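To: structure subgroup
Subject: Chain for Friday's discussion

All,

I'm putting the inputs and outputs inline so they're searchable in the archive.
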Amino acid sequence: MPQSEVSYKETSVSQNNAKGGLFDWLYTDIAIDLGTANTLIHARNQGIVLNEPSIVALNMENQAVAIGHEARLMHEKTHKKIRTVRPLRDGVIADFEVAEHMIRGMIKKVKVKWYSSTRKMVVCVPSGITEVEKRAVRDSAEHAGAKEVHLVDEPMAAAIGIGLDVHEPVGNMIVDIGGGTTEIAVIALSGIVYSQSVRLGGDELNEDIINYFRRNHNLLIGERTGEQVKCLLGSAAPLDEELELTVKGRDLVNGVPRTRIVTSKDIREAISESVNTIVESVTKSLEQTPPELSADILDRGIFLTGGGALLKNLDKLIMETTDLPVHIAEDPLTAVVRGTGKVLEDLEYYRAILT
């Protein structure tokens, strides 16, 4: 990082600290990674204070009876008086009212003092969302109690979270694979030079696995089982030692519970189409990148973040397809919220990247 940039950042931080008001202790400023599968919250000066599934359990009066982990345990196991809802689909808010319930409930979980309120909130959003979808995020955050709401693009937050200097005139390619979307972006000079938001992520892979069991084994499995199979057996390229797992579900022919043994090779075949779509999107993004930035990516490689980065051998497949180095971020699941938290801690320094 240039010396002038370092000194500017240090000055900015010290100014922010100096501006700390007499009544700052009354507020809890937070940064939120509002994900399709999981919501993570970073509180100012505290780090990551919450990581829970983005799901709400509602009663017949549409009142929230459980949020996060508790609601996840109820998912697909409820009776007619309780239903579970995932308010985000494809990385954006699909159910405005339930999303507000969820944000309020999660903020309440992280507040240490009952009398504190939320002053500033930084929320990360997919780079490809519309102005209407951005408005929905802002409104939900404001209705949940935030006085000041800032939005930051997910790939930009991911880049900051893994320690890249986004202000430099150097190209970095980020591939953030979440539950609902895959965000691919080339970043330089505090901006996104090229981005592609593919509405395909971990949820789609779960659906592929559920359909595979229905089609090949006449076995109906739930969403939670599909996700478990993906985490344990899912791979993008052949493994050194193939794995196998016994899966429980309902037989579609006679309706009774049954078990089936599947291998990682079977699951790889089941998710191959979706995985190939992600890899093709990365290739397309490289084709659209300006030549000087392409040279930087050749030197620095591609950075994978998000839960999808944990899919076995995905980095190997992208490496073989693009002939470029591929790096999986350390703790890829929290990369976005770590970056969003850094933006919250120093809003002035990162002012240029806010959307």
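Points worth raising on Friday:
Residues 1-20 have pLDDT under 50 and may be disordered.
DSSP finds eleven helices and 18 strands in the chain.

D.
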